[in-house]
Amino acid sequence: MSCTEYNVYFCFSEKPKCMFSLNKPTDVFMDIDDEQTLDFRSQFEHVRKCFGFFKPCLGDIFPNFSANTTEGEIDFHDWLGESWGILFSHPSDFTPVCTTELARVLTLLPEFIKRNVKVIGLSCDDISSHSEWCKDIKSYAGCNDDEKFPYPIIEDKDRLLAAKLGMVDKDELDASGMPLTARAVFIIDPKKKFRLSILYPATTGRNFDEILRVLDSLQLTDRVKVATPVDWKMGDDCMVLPTVPEDSVDTIFPQGVTVVPLPSGKKYLRKTPCPNVL
């Protein structure tokens, strides 16, 4: 099984239609009826929704799915409920880097819970493999083996879910030549919107402290008109959004705003103490 990439070509005609190329099935031609009022985003969204072979984009409602997990069958959206969610995939059970990653998630679980975040793993291994491997993960994390493993792991033996979500690594194959899942991280908010995507190769373990940092940023900037600068962590100064007018700054940011002088003379780099809203 392999993931297919599609090329979408926009054309202009009086009778809009969408069709595949007979000579090259991976080419898709999308006709557009009015060049003057062309909205590329809406046309692209139409193609994606009609054909369903594009992985979700940031801002989309994250696709719902049913899956078998170490905690039984779930409906993903129902399982999320009103929580934030992290869906992360790993290449294979009983492998060194994956074991360290899932153990780190286990030890960070109190931090995720504090942020109203549910976590769920995924790989191409089956439930029996996941369940047996969980013992090793708990041991590596220094947890009691008698304790229940605290978050579910999805089995995706046929790779259908991984392929749909763009998690497959075509360069990493199992013994039978089937592709394995890459180290993907997806963050979904309580409205089921897709908020973040990070994809790591199999040889590079993830930094889950960075995932927590991103969660803090997403949750903060959902509440306040700020952005978080490079290497920001909770408590550091934030940047006032460029869309905030000067005459509203004092009202919105009573803690004060500092304008950083720049050679251009433009006053776009405005810092404010981190709002205490979380």
From TrEMBL:
Domain of life of the native organism: Eukaryota
GO molecular function: peroxiredoxin activity
Signal peptide (UniProt feature, chain positions): none
Family matches, as CDD domains: PRX_1cys (cd03016)
Keyword Oxidoreductase: yes
Gene source species: Parnassius apollo (Apollo butterfly)
Reactions that this protein is recorded to catalyse: a hydroperoxide + [protein]-dithiol = [protein]-disulfide + an alcohol + H2O
Entry-linked InterPro entries: AhpC/TSA, Peroxiredoxin_C, PRX_1cys, Thioredoxin_domain
Coiled coil: none
Family recorded in the similarity comment: Belongs to the peroxiredoxin family. Prx6 subfamily.
Segments forming domain Thioredoxin: 56-220
Protein keywords: Antioxidant, Oxidoreductase, Peroxidase, Redox-active center
A GO cellular component entry from the record: mitochondrion
GO biological process: cell redox homeostasis
Keyword match Transmembrane helix: no
TM segment ranges: none
Primary role: Thiol-specific peroxidase that catalyzes the reduction of hydrogen peroxide and organic hydroperoxides to water and alcohols, respectively. Plays a role in cell protection against oxidative stress by detoxifying peroxides.
Short name of one Pfam family: AhpC-TSA
The protein's name in its UniProt record: 1-Cys peroxiredoxin
